[in-house]
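Private note to self, pasted from the team thread so I don't lose it. Backbone tokens:
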């Protein structure tokens, strides 16, 4: 017996000029066309080349399923640089590299992961050091994606590699139960985090941890743009469970999508759709304001969600300026919709973002978080809170102590260079 099920969208994002993608994909290129269409994910960046050791250049080994048995789709393959078009608005960006260093020389030593997205030539460089790799990637127009914020080398990568993207939803956020709960370091002292026990985070606590680290780096002046990745193909999570939407306008255009991702004209989501503007502009915009006056900005936001909307927050310089419990209405498609407007006062340089979430029956949350609107007041640079920059410096110093006598001199020097960059930022704390 055959049965047909008609699928209906709760919202058509393409009709509004928004197209989805994710930047951490371990599925094979041969399987992606079918899965992309099934999940309606517009852009994917499958890992082509990979290195897990400091003495190896990235190659087609190790298999992305080394720890889970052989892939039914065979080994990874290099299809070159040119995009692979599945449809006129579903595209595979085929040449991407992951440096995920778990050993230095013969010693087990974890540094972390960094993604180089959409580069033209295979990398023939080993890591660490990372600066030559970043310079090649930058010269080829590639995007650098930080992966997790708590890897031992993450705080070094931001200033040394001039990273573009920050994963607000990482590969531990699954549709099934949350995977990796340990914070891996002392939690930031300026915020509270949802925990199962000290240092053991819930899924929402982990996301809160990532938000706060993102905000701290934004305060330092690093204009990282948000993204999302699932590691689908390795982790037990569907492609696109976490995704980033980028606005390209009336039609899909890959070059515009990539540039929008770089600029942060985007939002990250695990469920809700969050469409917002500040001053009539999409996220990623920069407003230059006169020195004496500062300024006010009008904002508007719309949330459309499969579940009732629990909370909407206006974030200004990392602080919740407004927290709203939306009175959402049911749409004809069965979703929940809420919209509102407001005004933000920006007397000094800083940034604005919005986030929202729904509460699931199982106690978990599905969230969305916009990219950032930047405000530049002449003569008044962004000033990080002292507690935040001191925390970043402390965490980097702890990491540096672990690298001593293990990393080669040129790689160890990159950690010291990063530490000096954060210490200079500390001079303008508030």
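Design output:
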């Amino acid at each position: 017996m055959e049965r047909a099920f008609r699928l209906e969208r709760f919202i058509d994002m393409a009709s509004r000029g928004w197209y989805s993608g994710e930047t951490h994909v371990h599925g094979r290129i041969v399987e992606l066309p079918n899965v992309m269409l099934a999940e309606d994910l517009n852009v994917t960046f499958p890992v082509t080349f990979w290195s897990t050791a400091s003495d190896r250049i990235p190659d087609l080994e190790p298999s992305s399923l080394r720890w889970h048995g052989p892939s039914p789709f065979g080994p990874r393959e290099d299809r070159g640089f040119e995009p692979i078009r599945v449809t006129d608005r579903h595209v595979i960006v085929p040449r991407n590299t992951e440096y995920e260093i778990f050993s230095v020389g013969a010693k087990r030593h974890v540094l972390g992961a960094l993604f180089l997205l959409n580069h033209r030539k295979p990398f023939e460089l080993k890591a660490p050091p990372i600066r030559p790799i970043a310079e090649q990637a930058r010269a080829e127009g590639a995007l650098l994606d930080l992966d997790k914020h708590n890897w031992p080398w993450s705080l070094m990568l931001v200033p040394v590699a001039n990273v573009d993207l920050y994963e607000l939803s990482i590969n531990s956020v699954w549709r099934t139960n949350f995977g990796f709960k340990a914070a891996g370091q002392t939690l930031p002292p300026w915020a509270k985090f949802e925990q199962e026990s000290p240092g053991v985070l819930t899924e929402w606590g982990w996301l809160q941890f990532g938000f706060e680290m993102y905000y701290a780096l934004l305060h330092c002046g690093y204009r990282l743009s948000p993204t999302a990745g699932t590691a689908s193909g390795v982790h037990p999570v569907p492609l696109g469970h976490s995704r980033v939407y980028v606005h390209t306008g009336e039609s899909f255009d890959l070059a515009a999508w990539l540039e929008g991702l770089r600029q942060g004209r985007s939002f990250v989501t695990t469920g809700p759709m969050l469409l917002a503007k500040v001053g009539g502009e999409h996220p990623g915009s920069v407003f230059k304001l006169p020195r004496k006056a500062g300024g006010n900005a009008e904002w508007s936001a719309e949330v459309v969600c499969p579940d009732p909307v629990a909370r909407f927050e206006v974030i200004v310089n990392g602080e919740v300026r407004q927290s709203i419990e939306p009175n959402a209405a049911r749409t004809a498609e069965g979703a929940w919709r809420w919209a509102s407007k407001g005004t933000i006062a920006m007397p000094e340089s800083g940034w604005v973002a919005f986030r929202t979430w729904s509460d699931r029956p199982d106690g978990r949350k599905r969230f969305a978080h916009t990219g950032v609107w930047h405000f530049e007041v002449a003569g008044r640079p962004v000033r990080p809170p002292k507690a935040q920059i001191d925390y970043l410096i402390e965490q980097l110093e702890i990491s540096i102590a672990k690298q001593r006598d293990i990393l080669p001199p040129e790689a160890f020097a990159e950690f010291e260079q990063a530490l000096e960059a954060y210490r200079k930022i500390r001079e303008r704390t508030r």
